[in-house]
Amino acid sequence: MPAPDRSPAPEQVAARLLELAVVRSRASTVELAALSALLDLVVADPLRSAVGLDELAERVVELYWAQVQPLADGRALPQAGGTSRQPALVEEVAALASAGRLAGTRTARATGAAHPARWSAAVRRVALLLAQSALPHLQSPGPDLLFESGWLHRRTTQAELDERGRALELLPGTPRQLALAAPLLRPALQSEWAAVVADAAGASPTGLGRLLFGLPPSAQQLREALLEAQDGRCLLCGGRARDAVVDTVVPWRRLPLDAAANLLVADARCSRERAGALLALPLVFRWSRRPAPALEEPDDSERVRRAMVGAYRSAPAGSPLWRARGSWEVAGGQEGERIAALFGA
Ligand SMILES: [Zn+2]
Description:
three-stranded mixed sheet; mainly alpha; two-stranded antiparallel sheet; binds zinc ion
């Protein structure tokens, strides 16, 4: 007889992680960012068994990227509660972002491609900062839920990370559980994050959410180039685009990925009705045949294809798939494999 499955259900995993992250967020948003980054990596690949510390750090840099851009008064939003200083990790991202502004690069990855040595040094430092506090905090107090954390401590060094292959071994079942819990966990993390920032900035969390977590304005500015690549058509219905808006092929609320290949244009009406749902497969095929938009950004289509396979693998059977205005399908559970086959992944 097989051993009974003792692993907790996805909603129990989500509840405990959220509880811990909220407790930690009274000091700063770094734990919320670390958990959000982990969530993104497992949604993009729910079959993985480990998470590289540097890939986690890269994702954290991306999550803070829009948030560290200076506002009209020249200051960035505070990411620490009370009278605390901006966390060192956030300062690290802010320094990279200012290099990006000088180089005229739009996204974190594009800045990394323009300044590879500077990028990898910053990513290593962010990985160390995560390993020293945010990562051990994610599961403490209590037993390990996601990864073995006993080896991480406040004085962890780069040499120790190197010795461990700079990776977190995920516990069995964890990636899938976390990916299934993502639609519950992500909005809760974002609302806590907005509350901490609003509190520190003396602002109202209403309206701040879009600034912190929405598709950044720099992506909206690519509208014309995207329209041209789509021959003036809405990617969602195939008709001539009217009131075109920038949307994403991998739903932003499942996996916020500011990669050029992830962007598309659609009628405002189609985009609104789709409401960030996964697309039915014929639309994925339509997107995959679209010529690459003429953008001055590194080619990130491979990353987007992988994330798309992961996003469908992370969606439980029964998830709604948008097909056309007024028309929905229900996911059968095999969509991730069919898309993987299409991409030869
Ligand atoms: Zn349309």
